[in-house]
Write a sequence for this structure.
């Protein structure tokens, strides 16, 4: 019976926690204990080293460490005077722990509670698991880094190790007030480093050229000094389809002109080098390169330029599609150049060879024969206009609309051949030559002092489309030269009779 009473008391004590034991040292147990009271002695408070070692024993009995399967340190053994290198956090299978199903009884607890409030591996207070007189030695990784040694640290269990955002969300406990997508919504996105944008470098070439087309040629030349990319764009041939240096020929360097013509040569259609005296030294060295580059010219002007004959001939030989040519006051032009034009430029419509001292009507005669589309001829200060061959061919061709022959030696007989031809058929009633009307729209015969009223009367009835007439400084003209002409030229808009002393008011009345 006494044995049964002890068992009953032990079952009642299993419901008492260690905290209750710490608050009071004495308690009564009701029931069938016959009013007896049990008195527990308070544990002795340890100090110093014993207290530290008791704390290590409690840590080693934690259930979470028991699950890790740690093995005791190889340097910790019972007995002997060896120093303690570490405290073993032994598992349930360790040789230093109690058996799995063993419980401390009242006989071995020595007054301590035997309730299941600690792990199965918790040793009793009096268990001599190590020597208190042993020395503590700190073990470094190098001293234990040998084959078969036990790791000094415990890895994090795999079930709580978060390697990604999904695992982190799966192991994160639910917190009231925070939704499941909290980490997604508050994810910190790193700012991307903005790429430096080169607007000019990444801009298409077509847009660059379109921008530069709004600039004047002088401004484009200045922009070429900004950078290499700008230099290539400024000298792109598509910008120079029309190269007219008339407004800035005094400011542009000769080498810049050469670079433009050689770089943009295939694209140039209209080339106007009027007044470019600075090219005189460049033609000898770069004349062939310019002629080879510029092979698609339709309009070519060398007015008032100094150039050698070889360069002129090379350019003319390379351009068969020339329509407009201006060689005014170019002393290198002669009859040989006219021969090249006549043979190689069948599309020619306008030719200006005024004031070319080495040219006469023999060269112009070749132009009339070889260029059937010629409409404008400017040949001021040329000789040989009394030759019947060129005048007869001009009469037969009848394509000229603008003829400038001021300061020439043309006379009345030459004018009669030019407007009526040689031996024309004459109307017996009116006495006028039966010839098709001329296509002249503008005539300039100023300072041709060999012309008289007889030559001027040849124009009557033969130039119905005439709109401009310049006969200034012809001293032999009178009112009879204009009396009938004004009646037959209703489209006349411009008349120059400067310094003609013999005309009177009757001419002005006829004009009115």
């Amino acid at each position: 019976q006494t044995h049964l009473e002890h068992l009953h008391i032990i079952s009642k004590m299993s419901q008492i926690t260690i905290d209750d034991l710490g608050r009071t040292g004495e308690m009564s147990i009701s029931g069938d204990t016959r009013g007896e009271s049990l008195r527990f002695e308070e544990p002795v408070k340890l100090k110093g080293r014993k207290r530290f070692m008791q704390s290590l024993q409690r840590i080693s009995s934690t259930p979470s460490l028991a699950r890790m399967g740690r093995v005791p340190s190889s340097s910790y053994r019972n007995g002997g005077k060896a120093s303690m290198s570490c405290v073993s956090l032994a598992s349930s299978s360790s040789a230093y722990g109690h058996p799995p199903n063993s419980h401390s009884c009242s006989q071995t607890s020595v007054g301590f509670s035997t309730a299941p409030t600690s792990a199965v591996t918790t040793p009793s207070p009096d268990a001599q698991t190590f020597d208190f007189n042993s020395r503590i030695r700190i073990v470094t990784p190098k001293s234990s880094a040998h084959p078969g040694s036990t790791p000094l640290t415990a890895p994090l269990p795999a079930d709580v190790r978060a390697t990604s955002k999904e695992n982190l969300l799966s192991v994160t406990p639910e917190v009231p007030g925070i939704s499941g997508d909290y980490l997604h919504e508050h994810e910190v996105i790193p700012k991307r480093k903005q790429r430096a944008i080169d607007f000019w470098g990444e801009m298409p070439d077509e847009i660059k050229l379109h921008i530069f087309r709004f600039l004047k040629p002088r401004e484009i030349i200045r922009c070429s000094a900004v950078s290499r990319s700008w230099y290539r764009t400024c000298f792109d041939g598509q910008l120079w389809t029309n190269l007219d240096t008339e407004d800035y020929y005094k400011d542009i360097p000769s080498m810049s002109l050469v670079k433009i013509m050689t770089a943009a040569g295939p694209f140039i259609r209209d080339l106007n080098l009027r007044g470019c005296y600075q090219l005189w030294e460049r033609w000898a060295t770069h004349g062939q390169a310019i002629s080879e580059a510029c092979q698609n010219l339709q309009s070519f002007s060398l007015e008032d330029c100094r150039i050698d004959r070889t360069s002129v001939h090379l350019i003319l030989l390379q351009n068969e599609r020339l329509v407009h040519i201006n060689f005014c006051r170019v002393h290198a032009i002669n009859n040989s150049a006219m021969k090249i034009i006549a043979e190689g430029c069948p599309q020619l419509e306008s030719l200006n060879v005024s004031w070319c001292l080495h040219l006469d009507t023999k060269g112009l005669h070749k132009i009339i024969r070889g260029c059937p589309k010629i409409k404008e001829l400017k040949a001021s200060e040329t000789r040989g206009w009394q030759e019947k061959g060129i005048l007869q061919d001009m009469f037969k061709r009848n394509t000229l609309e603008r003829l400038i022959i001021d300061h020439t030696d043309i006379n009345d007989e030459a004018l009669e051949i030019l407007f009526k031809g040689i031996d024309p058929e004459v109307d017996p009633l009116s006495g006028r030559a039966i010839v098709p009307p001329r296509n002249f729209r503008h005539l300039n015969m100023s300072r041709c002092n060999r012309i008289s009223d007889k030559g001027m009367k040849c124009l009557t009835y033969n130039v119905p489309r005439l709109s401009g007439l310049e006969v200034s400084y012809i001293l032999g003209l009178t009112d009879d030269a204009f009396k009938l002409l004004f009646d037959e030229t209703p489209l006349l808009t411009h008349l120059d009779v400067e310094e003609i002393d013999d005309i009177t008011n009757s001419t002005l009345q006829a004009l009115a």
